[in-house]
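re the bet — no i am not wrong, look at it urself. input seq straight from the record:
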Amino acid sequence: MDASQHSPARLILIFKDQLGQRGVVLDKIYYSVGRAANSHIRLYDPFVSRQHAVIIRVPEENQAGYSYVIFDGSPGSRQSTNGLFVNGKRVSSHRLQLFDKIGFGPRVTAIVRSTDHFSPDTLAILLKTPPNVPEPGSQQDTEKEALRENESFTAIPCLAVS
């Protein structure tokens, strides 16, 4: 295979959260990022909001290509609780560039890299779904999310004080 047959390099976000490290190649127009079961990119940490961020593909000004912009919060302009950070600074939006370090609250990070920086074997490992993680939107995943949402509303019996 010669160089003209290789697929073009694309951005990959390498996330680190409670499940460890994994990658997501950016090749779609829109991604929701958060703790919610229906997020396109699901992050596993209690400090991540259900709808922590969105990533949108936008055309370059010269129309020669496109880039990705990350926005803090949900599409309804509601910002995340614990913030979105890029290279150590809190941001409401940012055009992603190689080697940016993104923070989703205090404990979850992602690094922006290019797929051409990795061997096919390394890419396969990064893109593999970690074991024991239900596919987003599956019945098992939805049931777990419903349980998590109800955990903070558990009634605790207490004594009346007179």
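see?? The helical segments are 120-127, 139-151. told u. also The chain is about 15% helix and 35% strand. so pay up
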